[in-house]
Here is the input.
Amino acid sequence: MKKLIFLLAIPLFINDLIYADELKAIDYTYHQEVKTVLLYPASITAPNVPLPPPVIAMNDPFPLLLEFDKFGSEVERFAVKIISCDADWTISQLSPVEYLDDYNEFYIRDREFSMNTKVRFVHYKFIVPRVKVSGNYLLKVYEENNEENILFTRRFMVHENGAIISSSLATVVGVEEAFRNQQIEFSVGYTDYQVFNPQEQIKVVLRQNFRWDRQIINLKPTFISDFDKRLDYKHFNFENMFKGGNEFRMFDLRNLIARNLNVEFMEYNPSLNHAILYTDKTRNGWAYSKIMDDMNGRFFIQNLLMPNAGTDSDYINVTFRLKTESEESGGVYVAGGFSDWQLTEDYRMSYIADKQEYQKTILLKQGFYNYQYSFTKNYSTERDDVYFEGTHSRTENNYEIFVYFRPLGFRTDLLIGYKLF
Here is the structure.
C-alpha cells in the first residue's frame, strides 16, 4: 500500500496528496525520453554562458524559466506543481494557499518542434510562478490528468535579503590539508529578525559548485554575539572544509563540421551522429595545472550554425574513454551537471580489456560541457572524485551560503540570506 504524505493541514485540498514512495525531493528524471532539463533565472539571455543555479530573490524582477526536451514528434500535455520544502528538503507542512496565489496546478503551453535535427524532439518552456514565502521548493512536472506519471523533479530556492553574510576562503591548518583542501569561514548578521535561540532557529548550508552531493550542513556557530546579532563560523576541526578537487575536463560540440575541443573524431550517420572524445588519463598525483577557465562542472546548450539553441541543437552520441592499466575494483562513472551528479547505470563506464580503458557512450545535446570521472570503491555508494582527478587547494570553485530561519510557531524554514562567491 502506498504511504501518503499530507501537504496540507486541512482535507479540503485532497488533490495535493503525493506518494512518498514515488516522489523524490531531489533533481531527478523519471523518464528516459526526457532530456536536458534546465531551470534558471529568466534574466539570462546570452546563449554561450553556463546557466546560474535556480536561486532568485523574492524581489527579483525576473522569474525562473524551465526548459526541457521530450523525444518524439507529438506534442504532449504536461502540468506542474510547486511543493514547499524545509531546509533539509523534507516536504513542509505549509498549504499551497500559504505560498501561492493560484491553485497549485499549472499547465505547460509553450512547446516547439525540433528543427533540422536527426533526433526528433519537442522542446518545452515554462515560466515558474511566483511564491509568497521564501525557502526551498520542489518543481514536479507530470503528465496532465495523471499526476502519478512524473516526468522529473527539480529543486529551486527563493531567498530574502535580510541576513548579512560575510565570507572568505581561509587557509587550512595542516601541511597536507593546506595543499589539498579549501575552508570557508563566514559570519551571518540577523538584525532584521527576532531570533530567540539562534543555534536552533538558524541553519546554514554550504555548497560547492552548485552540487547537492557537495554540501555541508548542521554547522553550529563558533561565536554568538547577542549585541550585534551576529553568528561566526570559524571552525578549526575541518567542519567547514571541502576538498579542492581539480579543474574540470571539457569538450565542445557546438559546431559539428569543425574540429572541436577534445573531440578526436566524428562519425556522421543518417540517424544519429557520434562524437568520440580523446582518451583521458588519471590526474591524481599530478601538479596543479590550469589551461583555460572551466565552468565548475556545468554546461550550456548551443549550435553555432543555427540561431535557436533549444530547437536547433541536435542530440549526439558521445563516447568517453578513460585509460587504466587494469580494471578497477569498483565502479567508474562519467559525472557532471548533465548527469545531475548522480552515479547511476546511465553513466557507469565499462572496462574494455584489450584496449585497457573504460568507455561509456552518452546521448547529449549540442553544447559545451564540463565533466569528470568518479569512483566508488568495491561498488559501494561512497563517492570518490579524487581517485582519478586529484585535489588541490588552488582549484577555482564556486561556493554558496544558504541561511535559513524558522520563526517561533512557523511550519517551515525561511531562506533569509544567500551568497554566491
The chain has five helices and 30 strands. Residues 113 and 122 are 5 Å apart (CA to CA). Confidence is low (pLDDT under 50) at residues 1-21. The radius of gyration is 23 Å.
